[in-house]
Every structure is written in structure tokens, then in C-alpha cells.
Amino acid sequence: MNPTSKLTAAAIGGVAMGVASSIPLLGCLCCAWAVGGGLLASYLWMRHQPPSLSPPYGDGALLGLMTAAIGAIAGMFVQLPLNLLMGAGGMSDAMQQALESMPEDVEVPQQLVDMLSSSAGSAGMTVVGVLVGAVFAFIVYAVLATVGALIGTAVFHKKPAAPVV
Description:
By secondary structure, the chain is an all-alpha fold. It has six helices and no strands.
């Protein structure tokens, strides 16, 4: 087992998953991209593995987690410039509407209102939002890419040839 080929497969599957999930219209299929990234990584890795009697499920699960980590990082690097270019003005509008629609009996400290209104839409809030999103994306990707990699390990596993009698 060559760890470099596993890392290469995880990198290709993770970048494909992270980029496809981060593009605005393609991101609607986020879960499918995560499973597909795990499948792709598994296919790329298993094609270089020698035949064996049982599929290497443990290595497949590890490959899925590696793919998820790389996918979350790749997605973060795609989302950050997109969010900065599209502007986070919508975020400040949403925060303002949320504060206005709060029930009367809920008291929001004035310092919190001032902090949210001054920082909403800033580049700092966008970066923090993307980092928090990357953490949540990793959690979702870890489950789905691992499932995809395990399915791929079972499907793309090469069995040894049966002896000819």
C-alpha cells in the first residue's frame, strides 16, 4: 500500500467534492458531491491496489475521512472569494431583519446589537462565517465521503483470480 497514492486519490476526490459543493448552483447537490468525492477517491486508490480476498474497508474509511478534510479546505478556499465578491450585504440585512422580528419580551443587549450592526457585512465576518461553514462542512463531508469511499471500496475491490482446474 503506497500512502502517496492514497493521499493523491483523497486530494483529487476532495478538491472535486469541495469545489463542486461550493459553486452556488451546483452546491444544491452538496450531499451527492460528498458521496461522489468519496467514490472518486476510492476508485482512484483501488485501481492501484493488488487483488485481495476481502476489501480493505478500514483503509477505505480512512480514505473517506482524508477526502472530507481536503474537500472542506478546498471548499473554504472557493467560498471565501465568492462571498467577498458577492458581498455579505445580504448578511447584514438578514441580521437586521432578525433583530426587528424578535418578540417584544426578548431583550437584546444594546452592545450586541451595535457589534452585529457594525461588523455585519465586513470582510472579518465573512472570513469567520466561511471558517465556521468549513467546520460544519467537514462534519457532513466526513460522514458522506466515508460512506462513498466504503461503497467504492466494495465495488472497485479486485478479487484474486480463481485457480483453473
